[in-house]
């Protein structure tokens, strides 16, 4: 089945807008780094969502992507998220990139690139490493013009508050 690239971009932007709302929740409700993520199944149904919770939950693994994938696994009754797409406002780190590979996601779509710890092409390219027995398609830069400034403003405010 051929999917029109324009339609795919519209869908990606639709879901990324929802992930950005989750990022706002991380920032506004929990004073966490504003990263939001959601998982959509192959039929276009939302099956998992999350935002950064690692500080609030004292859990270094509670990144938005992990929270969303855990919820999707529960919803689907499977640790494999076959055919699913992960939307996340910031390029996944190494932990989240490898979780995406191990979950057998079909796609990862992210907003802003992470020039310090990005593992989907910026610093590392763990997701696309040809040594894996599973391939995950990666699309970056979706609504990066919104996601990037949200992160920048958050860190500026934090630095200003600590002075």
Provide a descriptive summary of the structure in words.
This protein has helices at residues 5-30, 64-76, 94-102, 144-161, and strands at residues 36-40, 46-51, 85-90, 107-112, 137-139. The chain has 163 residues and is of the alpha/beta class. A 5-stranded mixed beta sheet has the order 2-1-3-4-5. The protein starts with a helix and ends with a helix. The mean pLDDT is 95.
Features:
alpha/beta; globular; 16% strand
Topology (SSEs and partners):
Layout lengths: L4 H26 L5 E5 L5 E6 L12 H13 L8 E6 L3 H9 L4 E6 L24 E3 L4 H18 L2
Largest sheet: 5 strands, mixed
Strand order of the largest sheet: 2-1-3-4-5
Q: Which segments are poorly predicted (pLDDT under 50) over 5 or more consecutive residues?
A: none
Please state the structural category: alpha/beta
Distance between the termini: 56 Å
What general outline do the C-alpha atoms trace?
globular
Helices, by number, come to: 4
Query: How many β-strand runs?
Result: 5
- Percent of residues in beta strands? 15-25%
Helix content: 40-55%
Radius of gyration: 15 Å
Overall pLDDT, averaged?
95
Run of helices and strands = HEEHEHEEH
Summarize the structure.
By secondary structure, the chain is α/β, with parallel strands linked by helices. Helices cover 40% and strands 16% of the residues. It has 4 helices and 5 strands.
């Amino acid at each position: 089945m051929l999917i029109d690239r324009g339609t795919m971009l519209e869908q990606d932007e639709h879901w990324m807008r929802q992930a950005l709302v989750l990022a706002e929740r991380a920032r506004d409700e929990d004073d966490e780094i504003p990263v939001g993520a959601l998982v959509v199944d192959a039929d276009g149904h939302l099956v998992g969502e999350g935002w950064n919770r690692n500080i609030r939950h004292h859990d270094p693994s509670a990144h938005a992507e992990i929270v969303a994938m855990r919820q999707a696994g529960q919803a689907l009754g499977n640790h494999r998220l076959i055919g699913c797409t992960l939307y996340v406002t910031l390029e996944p780190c190494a932990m989240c990139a490898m979780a995406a590979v191990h979950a057998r996601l079909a796609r990862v779509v992210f907003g802003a690139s992470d020039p310090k710890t990005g593992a989907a092409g910026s610093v590392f390219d763990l997701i696309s490493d040809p040594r894996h027995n599973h391939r995950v398609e990666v699309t970056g830069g979706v609504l990066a013009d919104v996601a990037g400034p949200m992160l920048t403003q958050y860190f500026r405010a934090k630095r200003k508050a600590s002075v």
